[in-house]
Structure formats: C-alpha cells, structure tokens
Amino acid sequence: MSRNANVSRKTSETDITINMDLDGTGVYEIDTGVNFFNHMLESFSKHSMIDLELKASGDLEIDDHHTIEDVGILLGEAFLQAIGDKKGIKRMAHAIVPMDDSVATVAIDISGRSYCNMKLDFRNEKIGDMSSDVVIHFFESFSSSAKLNIYGTVEGVNDHHKAEAVFKAFAKSLKEAIKVEHDQIPSTKGVL
Questions:
Q1: pTM higher than 0.85, yes or no?
Q2: Which H or E run includes 28?
Q3: Is the residue at 192 inside a domain?
C-alpha cells in the first residue's frame, strides 16, 4: 500500500506544491520563503520520518500569514490523501519532547474530525523571520484540512526552543499515530 500524495494549490496570495510520503525516511527539500518556518518543517520531516518536498511562494511583502496558513491547509490535504482509508493505523498517539529549557506535549487523534487546541505562549512577536502568532494558526489549518485532532502545550523560556519542541512533538506523535498495526479500521463506527 502506497501512502503518498502530490498536491498543489495556487491562489492570488500563494503558489504551493507538496510531495509527501508517509512511509519515508525523513528526507526533505523545503522552501517557503520563511527561513524559520523552513527549519520547523525540516524538523517535522526528520522526526516524523515523513519524506517532504515542499515549494511555496507567497505574498511575503505583506507578511508571512498567508504563506504559513496555506502551507498548513495544503499539508493537511496531502496528509489526508496519503493516509487513505486509515485501515490498520494506530490512530491515536502522543509525544513529550524536551528541548533545553522547554518541553512540549502533543496528542493526536486521526479521527476524521477536525479539532485543534494548542496552548502556546510566545514572548516575542517574531521567532527569527516568522511571526509567532501564526504557529498556532498553522496547526489549526493543518487540523482542519487533515481532519484530525491536535492538542498541544509548551512550557519554557526561549521562543525558538518552544516552537521547535512543539514541531518535534507533533512529528513524533504523528509518526506513531500513522503506524500500521493491524488490518481493521480503528473505530467502532467502522469508518474514520
């Protein structure tokens, strides 16, 4: 069973192409035009073992909101396409990831329903060249189009460490949740 997706989306604000392989080795080639966001997505790919080719261009002359939002939307669509009927997956997982002064917890349920509850508090308006307020919005956008639940918290002092710990915990929990463990749909409804 091949669990990959090739998706693209072009709007008046962004132009994005994504190739994703859920059963990869964490190989990535990422260019969003936002360097810190690239770093977060590279970390996500490496720690989830999901191969990811992602090319995005957007209206960064305005700000980074549209680019990061639309990458979240399309990444979620790619995930939904790649996961298929979800037969045999573990479905629910969580991860706790420390990073120096910070520790993040993320729990995921690939339920077929969208819900995102991220309790993240950043001290600064920017983390590198990325607006800190769009970190939560990225996860909301991903959750909405991937049709899954994401819950996350982070504690710490350094915004870079906090954001990176969250993306790594997201990666680790998703890696665990997509594992194929049996040959059934993991739901009493018989469908996810």
A1: yes
A2: strand 28-31
A3: no
Within a domain: residue 182? Answer: no
Structural domain span for residue 169? 4-177
For residue 31, tell me if it sits in a domain: yes
Task: Quick: pLDDT tens for 52-77.
Answer: 999 999 999 999 999 999 999 999 99
Single-letter residue type at 54: L
Residue 155: how many CB atoms within 10 A of its CB?
Answer: 15
Residues 6+ apart with CB under 8 A from 104: 96, 97, 152, 153, 154, 162, 165, 166, 168, 169
Q: Supply the CATH number for residue 116's domain.
A: 3.30.230.40
User: How many domains are contained in the chain?
Assistant: 1
Tell me which residue of 85, 170, 159 sits closest to 122, measured CA to CA. 159
Q: Is residue 183 in a domain?
A: no
Would you state the structure tokens that stand for residue 176, as one six-digit string?
């665990």
**In this predicted model, what pLDDT tens digit does every residue of 142-168 receive, in sequence order?**
999 999 999 999 999 999 999 999 999
